[in-house]
Amino acid sequence: MELTFKTENKKTAVRFLRFLPKDLRSIGLSAIILNIISLLITLIFYTKLQKEIPLFYSLPSDQQLADKKFIFILPAIATAINLAHFFIAYAKKEINPSILRMFIQITFLLQVLVLAILLRIIIIVY
Questions:
Q1: Beta carbons of 111 and 81 less than 8 angstroms apart
Q2: What residues contact 22, with CB distance under 8 A and at least 6 apart?
Q3: pLDDT < 50 stretches in the chain
Q4: Beta bridge partners of 54
């Protein structure tokens, strides 16, 4: 008679953003997904946009328009925000967890705002 022991296979979860605590990884991944969505929306609607789009709302009415290639500024800003914030979170792992949580939540909020600005411009022009 042979004795065999059944070993339990541990389910390995997808490991992403390992430098963040487990409870913040989903927020970090959501920020990355929003960044990718803003880039995809820009690429999809770029050919359908007019030659000039209203990009600079704080300027007088005659200076608000910019060439449509400047629409790529918004996804570039979103990517720069993600890279900078995740680099800071990676470099400063030992900071207070509540400060890190607030920092990652602000990263997510900035991605939402950039996506909202992009959608507003596309809805106005389209």
A1: yes
A2: none
A3: none
A4: 65
**How confident is the model at residue 55, as a pLDDT?**
78
For 43-73, the pLDDT digits (tens) are: 999 998 888 888 777 777 777 888 889 899 9
Q: For residue 37, which of 118, 97, 124, 93 has the smallest C-alpha distance?
A: 118
Q: What is the pTM of this model?
A: 0.80
Residues whose CB is less than 8 angstroms from the CB of residue 124 and which lie 6 or more positions away in sequence, other chains included:
54
> What is the domain range of residue 70?
29-125
Residue 86 lies inside a defined structural domain of this protein: yes
Is 6 domain-assigned? no
Nearest Cα to 67, choosing from 125, 6, 4? 125
CB 37 within 8 A of CB 50: no
